[in-house]
Amino acid sequence: MAAEGFLYKEFAEDLSGQAKAVVPQDLLPEDQEYVYKTVHNFCYIAGEALANDTEHTYTVDQASIITQFIGEWSFHKTLDIIRGNIPKQYRDGIMQKIAFTIFEIAKQATFKGLPQEQMIGLVEHHVKKAYNDALADLMKRGILSQKQAQAAANQSNIDAMAKADSEALSNASDLKILKLAAFALVAQKLPNDKVTTLLSKFPQSDANVVLQYMQLDNLDKQIDPELLTRCLKDFQSTMPKSQTISVTKVMRQFSRNIKNTSERCMNSIISNERPLIAKIISAPNEYEKWNLSTPVLNIICNYIEEKIRDYKKKSI
Fold it and tell me: How is residue 240 annotated by DSSP?
């Protein structure tokens, strides 16, 4: 296998879910669906090609980066095409050119060992060129007028989102940002469908901040453990409230799962976890001490149970 261990199907679902969580709600439902389905389809195709490439071998990180470039730019450019009023029958053709360009440029940059920062700039340059070339072709064929092509070319969702995120960060309090970062740290461990459900209840600016933090591999090392604990405790004011989840039921089930798991497994998990997580594992019946909201406790319990399942699989 060219990219052994690269779960491209799951990765495509994950990236599509992230797109679904932040797709602008002012779009028509069919346009919203087009955005995240396009992200999924191109990521799936690219991931499958990398996983089955018989000429080159990729690490999981390399395959993930290439696919993620395609996912991120598919999201931004589909929005540009929609807001630029490109006729629907020409959307797929433009997106295919862009996705193919990203795929080839990112692969070449990977072969040359370029650092990721250089790859980002290189990919962005070629995406803009491919997009503008496609618009020029439509104008040449008489499908778009010069005014229409220029209006579409002026669309830049990536710049608009960056500006909105910057304003959100500037306007938000330091404590709120820390809470969103703390949630992002927990969300990194969650299944994609749960992240999508939760983020759909956040203001879009907050959801964008969370997704930004989720992309950081070393986020846990950038937040002081004591501060993280405080943020999780305070997160009730930001976290979507659950009216159906019973904390007693959640923790009773979690306690049973802990009791039915070997001490060796639990010690292995505790040794690699942050203090708050370790405390919840060691004394699940004392959950009231931590003053965590039901949704946060549910997230943490699901995360730990996933760790237990992973441990048992590896032990078979």
Answer: P
